Inverse folding.
């Protein structure tokens, strides 16, 4: 049995960031399940590593490559880890400097992950304060003023 | 100038229900704009009659043909009309008898419409009480328990 | 029977604005019920004219007297009226010029009212687009950054 | 310096449950800050241990003593801890067996806490999936059908 350590959590994020599927598979199970919070278009359970990676691709595309997660705290427990990231992003096409919640993200996100045999098998995100509302607006099909935008 | 009358409002709904584009065009402008409330996948401005009719098709499809609007009150003003409908629907594939807000709609919706030269040029929906929350859950990509469903 | 007319709707608003209870009673029933949308602290049914007037007092107090409703459209139907107001307000104590949804309101609100024997017996508000979300933030006990504020 | 350990996190919860202020002070700082998620009446920052304990009293009162937090996972990091609790509660006065989100809570909540000199100085809650919506309804001043209830 592989113990969950902060180093392993950090390595999992680094692997994910690399985009290298072989390396990702050292930390994430093929049958990974991941729950995105809210009831906006990206919300809900992603039911495989491929679905999760496609989600990552979507967040990249929808933010014109600006989406970032900076690890601020890493915690471990029995067969589980948690972390707090500061997520920053701007929607693709948003006016420079917009601070509308529909166009700009800059807040902390919490992740809670279950590990099995050294790999993450389940993850769930959550938000603090009232940023769950802002998060739903950021990923919405509508921008400020209700104009629909490409998903 | 054609005055807005309750009869004309009712006739507009009947035309819309017929699906006959020529008949619909007697009451709705080609450059109709329509605003669906919330920040769920169907929310936002639809910027032409065609976009609006495609939306109608979506609501039909997502509810397996169960979507109904029953006119309960019709009001008219200067170059505008309003009405209150009781909307009922079940999401396609929902278990029989489900009363989850993600799967069952049964509440009143109001519409406010601007008319010009005898035709509707702008419409906006809204909801009463806390049903705006339920409305967002009904049209969400997620069902109860967060399972993602086809749009 | 007294018919509902646009003039009577406008007179009801003028009476309400006067704060003169006798005059208000010419247009609003003692057992008026009024539904404020959302699930924020002011939301829900107000179950008498007194409860409704107390609500009006609250909105006045919470906005430092800045709360305004400007009638933009009046509509009438059988025993009912509807109207669209542009509501503007700033929360008491908000920084000058703040455009945070927690501190600044500037959008249209829809009202639907049932009349009986010449007086309003039931009213319900609703909002367009995604302003129901903003409306809940404006009346919340929390401001931007989650700091709690007096109700 | 006192290290944060799972045992210490569990002991903090046990102290909180005891209601014994001296014992609570072994784990929580006098100037504790705590953030409750959402924009409902209980949401926002509580800016002292006393304010936090008053909040605990409120949750007890609003749920007729049914509010429970069962620790399901405990995690520790550098000067911080996290945990996942299953929270269950029924609103005081709710009909037996109600499963309305306005009346019944049964879902997981996570907590993220900062520790300093062996005591918790900051805590924030969050929710998974779409339960942030349910959480706001549970603590709302309105019940199902919009009837206002005592805070």
């Amino acid at each position: 049995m592989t113990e969950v350590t902060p180093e392993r959590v950090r390595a999992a994020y680094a692997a994910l960031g690399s985009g290298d599927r072989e390396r990702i598979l050292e930390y994430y199970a093929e049958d990974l399940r991941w729950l995105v919070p809210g009831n906006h278009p990206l919300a809900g359970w992603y039911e495989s590593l491929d679905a999760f990676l496609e989600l990552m691709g979507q967040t990249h595309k929808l933010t014109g490559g600006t989406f970032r997660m900076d690890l601020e705290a890493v915690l471990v427990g029995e067969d589980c880890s948690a972390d707090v990231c500061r997520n920053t992003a701007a929607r693709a096409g948003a006016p420079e400097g917009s601070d509308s919640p529909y166009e700009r993200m800059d807040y902390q996100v919490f992740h809670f992950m279950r590990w099995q045999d050294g790999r993450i098998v389940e993850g769930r995100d959550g938000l603090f304060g009232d940023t769950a509302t802002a998060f739903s607006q950021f990923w919405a099909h509508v921008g400020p003023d209700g104009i629909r935008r490409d998903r």
